[in-house]
Amino acid sequence: MKYRYLNINEVNIEEVTKHVSSARLEKTSKLKTDADKKRSVCVEYLLNEMINEVVEGIEVPVMLTYDEKGKPHIYDNDGKDAIQFSLSHSGDYVACIVSDRECGIDIEKHSDRRDYEKIAKRICTESELKMIKSSEEFYDLWTLKEAILKATGMGLSLDMRKVEFVNDSNGLSQEINNNEKTFITEVFGTTYKGTILKAPEGYSLSYVEEII
């Protein structure tokens, strides 16, 4: 498993555009704002860069195929997933994870304009709500929730309140190296490890990965 995030303001967008698929460029051309266009190009560029670094046998730029729930795939010649991956973008950042097992990643820019307590009640279990002491902790947990939706491929059809992230002591505060926090959750018999990562200032970043 490898993950990376990228500040879209630190790249040469003309150069980056040369390293994405024609399908991505067509999709990007339909977006309204320059910021949306930049995020769209940069997130696929990051995926292509990571595949070049860690995966053999996949031609880049990749051509993504989307299933009925909108989850992107890279299929091999037999129609099977050549690799598992997930993409996310928010504000000035894009993020990507690649793995040999189901995975999801999410990055979120913090916003004072969001009523985080109201949102938390819609997406968190009672145990999780008791552990949220600040907006930053809410955003950390929110990225975990979004990441599990991506990993399972179920999207919003999966009720976030039925997915609870806990650590070995059933809390939400286990610290590990580099200020990361790790959790476990189970969805329909599959167990996932969730990790809240050290993120850029003003952002939260998390990934989940299937435990085999």
What would you say about this model in short?
The protein is α+β, with helices and mostly antiparallel strands and 212 residues long. The chain is 31% helix and 25% strand.
Provide the succession of SSEs: EHHHEEEEEHHHEEE
Arrangement of strands in the largest sheet: 6-9-8-7
Q: What overall form do the CA principal axes indicate?
A: globular
Low-confidence spans? 168-177
Total strands: the figure is 9
Residue share in helix: 25-40%
Kindly state the mean pLDDT as a whole number?
Answer: 91
- Going by helix content, strand content and strand pairing, the class is alpha+beta
Task: Note the main sheet.
Answer: 4 strands, antiparallel
Which range does the strand content fall in?
25-35%
**Separation, N- and C-terminal Cα atoms:** 13 Å
Radius of gyration: 17 Å
Task: Please work out how many helical segments DSSP would assign.
Answer: 6
Key traits:
alpha+beta, 212 residues, four-stranded antiparallel sheet, three-stranded antiparallel sheet
Question: Strands, helices and their partners?
Answer:
Elements: E1 2-7, H1 13-17, H2 22-29, H3 34-54, E2 65-66, E3 72-73, E4 84-90, E5 93-99, E6 103-109, H4 116-123, H5 126-131, H6 135-152, E7 181-187, E8 190-197, E9 203-210
Describe the structure.
- With about 210 residues, this protein is an alpha+beta fold.
- Helix content is about 30%, strand content about 25%.
- It has a four-stranded antiparallel beta sheet, with helices on one face. A three-stranded antiparallel beta sheet has the order 1-5-4, sandwiched between helices.
- Helix 2 runs antiparallel to helix 3.
- About 35% of the residues are buried.
